[in-house]
Amino acid sequence: ALRLLFKMLSSCSKVGDPRPGEPYKGGDFYAFLPDNREGQKTAMLLKKAFEHGLTFQIKSCNGEERVTWGFIPHKTSWDGGKARNGYPDAQYLREVCTVL
To answer: Which cell locations does it reside in (predicted)?
Structure first.
């Protein structure tokens, strides 16, 4: 099994974010992939998306700005099925690769 960790530091938002110049909270974000050929290929594509700033966004939540997942779907749990962003989900790798 592959476990990806994204450490997003707290900082100030930039032009194009909901409230430019305002501080926002970061956090640790985990994603899970099967440790096989397709999972490793997907991990490389997710890395490229992250490097291009496509993985996260800043959103207002209860009066504060915080980092949240963007539009690329990630599996954030090993279980719970598709409804809980987990496995089993036979279509996930195909779907995420289409988005990427």
So the answer is: Cytoplasm
Could you tell me if 55 and 46 are in contact, meaning their C-beta atoms sit under 8 angstroms apart? Answer: yes
| Spatial distance between the Cα atoms of 5 and 25, rounded to a whole number of angstroms | 17
Three-state secondary-structure class, residue 84: helix
Range of the domain at 68: 2-99
pLDDT for 45-58, tens place per residue? 999 999 999 999 99
Three-class SS state of 57 = strand
Write out the two tokens for 10.
């707290």
DSSP H helices, 1-100, are 37-51, 92-99
Both structure tokens of 97: 């690769």
- CATH code of the domain containing 81: 3.30.390.130
SS3 39: helix
Domain count, the chain: 1
What distance lies between CA 17 and its chain's CA centroid? Answer: 17
